[in-house]
Amino acid sequence: MTAESTSTTGTDTGPSSGYAAARLRLLGEPLADPQTRPGPPRRAQLAQLTDTWLTGLLGHRLRGPRVALVAVGGYGRGELSPRSDLDLLLLHDGTGTAAEIAALADRVWYPVWDLGISLDHSVRTLAEAHETAADDLKVHLGLLDARHIAGDAALTTELRTALLAQWRAQAPARLPALHELGRERARRHGELPFLLEPDLKEARGGLRDATALRAVAASWIADAPRAGLEAARSTLLDIRDALHLTTGRATDRLALEDQDQVAKALGMLDADALLRRVYEAARTISYASDVTWREVGRVLRSRAARPRLRQLLGGRGARRVHPAETRTPLAEGVVEADGEVVLARSARPDRDPVLPLRAAAAAAQAGLPLAMPAVHALAAAATPLPVPWPAEAREEFITLLGAGPDTVPVWEALEAGGVIDTLLPDWERVRCRPQRNPVHRWTVDRHLVETAVRASALTRRVQRPDLLLVAALLHDIGKGWPGDHSVAGETIARDMAARIGFGPADAEVLGTLVRHHLLLVETATRRDLDDPATIAHVAGTVGSTGTLELLQALSEADALATGPAAWSTWRASLVDDLAARVATALGTAAEADAAAGDGRVVDAGDSGHGGAPTRSVRPRAIVAAERLAVEAFRTQAPVLALHTARPEPAAPPPGNREHTRDDAAAALEPVGVELVIALPDQPGVLPAVSGVLALHRLTVRSAELSSVDPAGQGEVLLLQWRVAAAYGSLPQAERLRADLVRVLDGSLDITRRLAEREAAYRRPRRRLPQAPPPRVTVAPLGSALATVIEVRAQDAPGLLHRIGRALEGAGVRVRSAHVSTLGANAVDAFYVTGPQGGPLPAERATALARDLERALAPAPGPDPAEPAG
Q1: pTM for this structure?
Q2: Partners of residue 791 on adjacent β-strands
């Protein structure tokens, strides 16, 4: 049964009566029948039926002024919904009297009103139509869809031709205003892909935005992406038709109480299936809008720059490179071009399975959009990643998740291209899934991404930022399956962790985080924290302080991403209190195990042989490193070895211990190649070596610094690095050695060279993502022989060089170090002593940490455009 009804007056048997009956028959056809459900054919039939009726109302005129009845707006596009207004323009040439024109208008308007159909009408001459369109952007938009119904067709053609020419001529001024209209609508009505009671027309991603894209295309400035756009618009129109028929109201708001009826009318399973269909269509339109408006901005900027460029060139014949032609390398196979991230000309997606993640990570870290042609090329040609993923793929994935708010548009681009479903097959079950709890602001999939965004701001609090980011992305993944989503999510998280390339211990931690991601909040707000059984239960469930700190950060990120009602100062204080009590219950021994298991607080001097820690150095590597140390002692000069072969697998560490960064490295080969440097002990080694690596655009994935005495006659510094080229090929070892010698003898000012290159790569127009500030602390349970300084910061070009310079400037000696890069997060530990050896006094150690944190704080202004190293 439909709610469509049309009234007639008396026993009228004229054209209006016939139209009303035909309209009722058309709209009264069963909605459950697939042949008669709302769709383009039904809307076209209704528009054609209405055209015939209106043509009869206007009548055939042989004399008098030239007149045309014109459909505009949605009716002009032939998209007449059951309760849509009739948008009509009575166009005339201005030769008739006011009485004649009024009589003609009354012949059309009054029958429409008599049938109870809403009418948006106007009467104008050609000149008046042009003038109104010039003054009112919304009127001009409606007239772009003008379609002739009856009367003088030449008059309608003249109107359309003139208005299109006017639109194209005024496009540089009109399009920015149209874009602002869309932004204002989004502020008022929200984003259609995430609303529980969405406005199908006015919300962002709705029918208004689809109409705006048609107007952009008509301007010839830019065109919207065609893939899926028409189908998405048709989906929203079908749903609006069903909404009109089931409610009997001219409404665009899909209210909660109407969703079941509309879903049933469209043959869908339930209201959730209906909302998923709405969200998918809206995301297609939203993404097309983002891409189109970005292209409009690019074209308009380019046009504005041409006169200035010609003026600067002054007519000289030498070819100058236009700014739009500049291509700045960001990563291997990835460049920036005209404010977007595109594939390098040499990129081969068919031979580089990591390229999609590398491009996405580079775009997010640079705060730039991933160009649509690049997404399509990656989706069409990229080779599927092997399972488990290579270590580089895992690191790029973590880098993407850790980019903060700039992760979202890049993720949306990958989703639009189908790349996410290829990478994470389980993602499809949560994509566009609505959440009926009004506390939740987002759909399930967007909530997961937003949680990762929130977690990226908390990475300085935890030892394992990579596990925090992945847990944030997966914590509600079980909502795509029946039953308790935490229980289902634990199994999925373990499987996905193995797929991504985490080792068994890390997969265990991720499973625990997903299974118990609500534990801290629910316990803190619903249980007595003074009851020892409460604390014992949480401690037994969590098991370690490392997992506890991850769970605490995940709880906060989850709540912040849910919505403003889910987190408060009061709730945060309760969770903090609970976490502190559980940490105490776990005991100082567990904290010491966690620190040792992380691999960052192991002093080479405590290993018993004066070399690097035995648990992380392979037997063959030990022999090779000792040979280099002997050679460096003999020549009293730096000796380098660059090993590009696949490393020998490491033996698993003995005993049960908490998750460590070495677990993932043990599961798969690490990122990059091994670089071993041995040289006589002298001041300035760490900043010198790290500066040379940064100068050659080598990203540091991990590093260990230790002292050995190969001949029993003096110490030699041994630095073992895991490095990768940011882009291009690796430099020759001899070139690295030559530059290192020059830095050490003072003939190469490495600090000045790095600063010059940084200035050369600055982009004043670029807004880089805001990373969490660095955090430098003194490890309370570090070492008996040295003070352990822990640094957690955003990885960046020359970061290790700046750390080394600051430590050298503070007058401390770096006895050993353990450096690790997890995604875009640097997690480092430095064992420092005073000039006479031994740990620093507590006050001096605290001051050193404070000074180092200040030295690492980002300077105001844009950062370099090239990748971290």
Answers
A1: 0.85
A2: 776, 828
